[in-house]
Amino acid sequence: MDQSAIVLEDVTVRFGATTALENASARLVERRIGVIGDNGSGKSTFARLLNGLVLPTQGRVTVLGLDTQSAGNAIRRRVGFIFQNPDNQLVMPTVAEDLDFGLKAHDVAAAARAAQIDTVLARLGITHLKERACAELAGGEKQLVALAGVLVLEPSVLVCDEPTAMLDRRNARMFSEILTTLPQQVVVVTHHTELLEGFDRVLVMERGRLVADAAPAQAIAAYVDLSP
Amino acid sequence: MMRAVYRPGDSALHRMPAGTKLLSLAVLAIWISTGGWPAAVLGGAIVGFGWVLARLSVGDAVAALRGLVLLAAIIFIAQAFLTSPTFAALIVTKLAILVLAATVVSMTTKVADMLGVLERVLAPLKLIGASPEQASFLIVLAIRFMPAIARIAGEVREAQRARGLERQPFAAAVPIMIRTLREADAVSEALAARGWSPR
Lengths: 228, 199
Fold this sequence. Notes:
Structural class of chain A: alpha/beta
Shape of chain B: globular
Shape of chain A: globular
Radius of gyration of chain B: 20 Å
Number of helices of chain B: 10
Largest interface: A-B, 28 and 25 residues
Order of helices and strands of chain B: HHHHHHHHHH
Number of helices of chain A: 8
Distance between the termini of chain A: 41 Å
Largest sheet of chain A: 6 strands, mixed
Helix content of chain A: 25-40%
Strand content of chain A: 25-35%
Strand content of chain B: under 5%
Radius of gyration of chain A: 17 Å
Number of domains of chain B: 1
Oligomer: heterodimer
Strand order of the largest sheet of chain A: 6-7-8-3-9-10
């Protein structure tokens, strides 16, 4: 079993009568991977497969050697997930409490939690937000806090589902720049093709199928060709 | 609606154990709710003293009471009509004092500390096989997402006004319910992604 990659083997996902993803196979080892496609193309389902939020109806997904069918919790510890809307991801009233929530959920000892929170906030340059109420933050700040909430768990892989969809251009640019500095493997599902600048590989999805898999320039060109 | 969140500080109220504050709040609430004007006046004085002790401002009090205005007006009119203006004033005064009392506790107590107290209080749930941690977390989560539900309701009502449906309150009920359920679904997915699971 491949211990160093995310592997999809002939994966199909159905929700009732709807097929969201069909016969998808890929081996993801690159550091920066993008996934693009129109609404309903299956790219969000693809992203959710990578940390076991969605399980294959057929086929198999393994992440760093672990099968998502049997090791969901262990995989979620290793694969952080950023959602489109940070409001749904931030569950505690203040930033510090929210980060602490994630650490507690993974049984990190109390003594280590405070230091880990301070470290990740400093790394993202948002120490000043530590005691602020999540509900009162601006959109870009919320997405950074959501990112901090994931990074504080020190995942090996970061999956982002439309992370800049609710941000203005300045915040989207800032978020994108932060993504480029992370040591983790990053998989970004997005409509914003400019976010994929400098990426190693881009997958293109259409109607539940992987229809292109190439370097960003070629993949984006293939995506543009698909559009009517 | 109460939206007060913890405000860091080192006042005597900040340092007081969360259990003591919550128990005091419960006793004060029962005493004020069941008493007359003397209880309301004395209770108000105690809350005012707590407010000063916690180093909160008049602006904080105004912000805490702002969301109460419409509800208080409805209660006052209904009570004045059903009982007397004096009794209506007493009810509204008690309500305002209780909101301020809850606010001062919220603003001086970390949610994590409240969770700890709730878990201890709900510990007997273990006897019937339920999880105190899960129950206390759900309570905190419900409080956390009240502003989100208020936002959804506001957006839906605005959209209905734009369509000229402001006189049909039930027209807003279904979209509010659908959006709230969708949001709950998204939050549940995010919780799973962050590794939270019922224990």
